[in-house]
Amino acid sequence: MANIGASGDGQGIAPPTTEDVTEIYDAISLHQQWFSNRGGRRAELSFRNLSGISLKGCNLAGARLIGAILTGVDLSETDLTGANIRNSDMRRSSLRGASLRGADVVGANLADAVLDRANLSKAKMSGCDFTGASLVGANLSDSDFAKATLIGVDLRDADLHGASFAKAVVDAVTVALCEAAGVVMPVGSIGPDYREIRVEEFVMSIVRHELWIASSGNLGARLDFDMVNVPALKMTGRHLGGSRLRRCKIEGGSWLGVDLNMADLSFTDLSGLDLDHAKLRGVILRRANLSHTNLTAAIFDPVPLVIGQSFAASNLEGAVLAHAMLANASFSGANLRSASMQGCSMAGASWEGADMEGARW
Predict the structure, then answer these.
(1) What is the C-alpha separation between 248 and 192, in angstroms, rounded?
(2) DSSP assignment letter at 270
């Protein structure tokens, strides 16, 4: 029996109680007997809260987990072959090396989940949200990803043979990550349906954000957009520190010297943007598309936090920087793990203390 223990998912969902964990343990024990034809019964864990529990290495083949809360659950090396996991919440869960062969995962939320080397062959994944998920080396052969959302997804070394992506939403970031890794996406996918935002609306949002900064949050409002098409504007010198522009597409324009310190631009397409001399201290650009972007003399150094002596480092994990201009940019202490940096011009750039494990040149 695998080790089972509640740890909480760290995102506001209360972990199961000790009594809940005991019930789950007993259910899995009986399930193993059922699976081995030694009596017992199939595990019925639908709509149960399993958040933060470690189910590493458990045998849950054929189990029912419909609508279950599985956020932050350790399911690495777990056997979920033929399991019914429809509409479950599996955000931030670990499924490294797990088997979901033939599983029904329709409509599940797998945002930021790790499925490296998992076996999802012949799995039903239609309508799933894979935003920010990692499927490095996963077996996706003959699986169904129809109408799934794949934004900022890492598919390096994945086996896509026979997989269906009919009307799956695949963004430019995922395509760029695939191209950088030599992975060919199957035909049939579509681009994201970004919300079009009027220039006037975006400009007013900037004004409110700058007032929010100047008043230390007492007036105005933080700039916070998701899945929008940002119009091309002259943004030279504007203050967008702490803003959120996640899963967006920025059409262009000049962002020369813009202040994006501590901003969150995860999974956003900034390809070809002019960010010359931009302030990007502590920025989050996780799996963002920065290909052909001008980052000359941009500053990615860490930001000192008010509490204690800690620093917030810039996060460019998995970002695509292919053919970007990085001359004289400073990446001190930045997270560049698994970043794609083929063809960059980087004369005079500073990399002191940067984490570049798995980066591709």
Answers:
(1) 9
(2) -
Residue 288's nearest CA partner among 174, 130, 158, 169 is: 174
Q: Where do the domains of the chain lie, and which CATH numbers do they carry?
A: 194-361 (2.160.20.80)
Longest CA–CA separation in the chain, Å: 70
What six digits make up the tokens of 43?
Answer: 């595990």
In tens, the pLDDT along 88-131 reads: 999 999 999 999 999 999 999 999 999 999 999 999 999 999 99
Backbone angles phi, psi at 85, to 5 degrees: -120, 25
Alpha-carbon separation of residue 111 from 94, 107, 131 (angstroms) = 11, 12, 5
The residue whose two tokens read 């794609």 is: 340
CA angle 79, 85, 89 (to 5 degrees): 110
Instruction: Report phi then psi at 54, rounded to 5.
Output: -95, 115
Reported as type and span, the H/E element at residue 340 is: none
Q: How many CB atoms lie within 10 A of CB 357?
A: 11
143 or 13: which leads in pLDDT: 143
pLDDT band at 53 (very low <50, low <70, confident <90, very high): confident
Q: Quote the pLDDT of residue 6.
A: 44
Do the bridges between strand 303-304 and strand 311-312 make them parallel or antiparallel, or are there none, so unpaired?
A: antiparallel
Measured over the CA atoms of residue 190, residue 192, residue 198 and residue 200, the dihedral's sign is: negative
Q: What is the Cα–Cα distance from 192 to 170, expressed in whole angstroms?
A: 7
Residue 59, φ and ψ in degrees, nearest 5: -100, 105
Closest of 58, 18, 62, 20 to residue 41, by C-alpha = 62
CB neighbourhood size of 92 (10 A): 21
Residue 166 has pLDDT above 90, yes or no: yes
Asked whether the predicted pLDDT for residue 180 surpasses 50, the reply is: yes
Q: Which two tokens stand for residue 258?
A: 């813009």
Nearest residue to 156 (alpha-carbon basis) of 310, 320, 45? 320
Instruction: Answer whether 137's CB lies under 8 Å from 118's CB.
Output: no
